[in-house]
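Predict the assembly for these two chains.
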Amino acid sequence: MTTITAPRRSASRLSPPPPRQHRRLNVQRTLTSVVVALIVVVQVYPLAWLFLTSVRTEQDFANGDPFGLPTGFTLENYSRAFSTGNLALNVLNSFIVTSGAIVLIVVLGMMAAYALQVLGFRGSKFVRGLFLIGIVVPVQIALVPLFIDYAAVNLLDTYQSIIIPLAGFSLPMSIFLFSSFYEYIPRETYEAASLDGAGPYRIFAQITFPLSLNTIVTVVMVNSIFIWNDFIFANTFVLSDGLKTIPLGLQNYIGAMGKVDWTATFAAVCVSITPLLLAFLVLNKAMIYGLSSGGSKG
Amino acid sequence: MLPNRSRLSVLIFLVPPLLLYAVAVLLPILQSLFLSFFQWDGVTDMQFVGLGNYVYMLTGDTVFWTAFLNTLGYLVICLILQLGGALLVASLLTMLRRGRELVKTLYLLPAVISTVAIAFLFQRIYSLEPAGLLNRALELIGLGGLQTAWLSDVSSVLAAVSVPEGWRFTGLYMLIIYAALLAVPQELEEAAKLDGASWWQTFWRIKFPHIRPVWITTTIIATTYALRGFDIPYLLTNGGPGQASELLTTYMYKTAFTSTDYGYASTIAVFVVIECLVAVGLILLLLRRKADA
């Protein structure tokens, strides 16, 4: 996408529009900027407010105007958030579940895409169709059957019980992202390697995998958001406090303190979104690229 | 196809992913279909009821129909916010000179936050006593008379639980549409302007037909995601007050895990799947046909 648009943008900068149009365009541009800025403020304000509330004192929150700036800055809410809940344990559980599911999604996604796109076989269209089902079908269909199956094989209340459906439902999108990338690896590369005597496993390990690194980053980032934040599977299959992930842990804040301690809860919310937010801000180019190209191909 | 591949190598690469997918997705779909013909509470023996669950759902269950209509309302609000908002911001963005990257990042930010956190946030935004962000904002612009407890008011609660879902993902769809708009050849647009086409004409006659394939994909993603929407209504109101914000998904969840009626819950789940498939079919039919006309 960027390779096509970059030259065009610089070209239009080199040839300015005729002067009469120029003024009207300027007014229009300023107006556009103002409108965009307003929309962005409305979009982001709730998040800013969330953060501001987490550093307010309790009295300030209780009597204060929600639009006002905090009268003082305090980190007390954060220490209360950590001491009341199992915040650290929840974060750890989220890390375990997310990395488990992500490894499955990336490795199995690459393998399936390699079999479908590079190796090829009779019936590959049918298998593709099977995977397509997982993109359209809502996850709720799997809740009752999985609950029953897990109960039968003693998997309820384990990390695996969340990892399996999370990975399974994200797998199709990952396969399609890898497949559409593998389409662009020229046939000749493989043919040359084959002539040199490399078999399918060596070709996968030495050619396809190293070339996939960019796509891997995209798949990891996009899926991390959804898996880190998963609520429905964790809420259905996890019962004990020791295994609760961040979204469930947050939900407990209301029960654990009877009367809701909002400033501490908001501090906990801020802690829970920090890892993803950091990853997002650092890698947002890769993520934005992945999201827009994934959507236009999917 | 690789020349040196063996049947075994295909199986080695294909079987593990297919196995996970079968266990997590395909098998549960079949099991749900199967269960939907039974009455079962998970403890006593399963009882075959044929189409009984389906007949009851479609003819006897008023909660089901309330939930169905609520789901449609939820869908409409989500689509307007997500697709309408996305198209608007994406086209405004193409006119900006500077700061495009910053706007993209900020606009996408809510997508990073978990639904539980969003539910907390909006619980406070909607609150009446003490006045939350929304009620306070209404007061500031002189519309104090409109203040209400948005989540306990039967007439506003459905919109109140739909808005956060719309807000959360609009950035995602904006990125997709923005990328598509950038790919529209500039020459076409300039030619249309030289011929005296207005901004609206250029947009509707030149740009939109160009992004139609992406628009169709985006509409399908947004629709299927809205139809499976669950977290935010479940967390904010749990379907209440009464059934005013009950969606098919929350109703199904409660039927399964509160009333432990696995058979009937599966029937509702099957209906949600059919609903998604019908929606995708309708979108393809309507938007494709327009393209031919």
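Chain B touches chain A through 101 residues (CB under 8 Å). Chain B has a mean pLDDT of 87.
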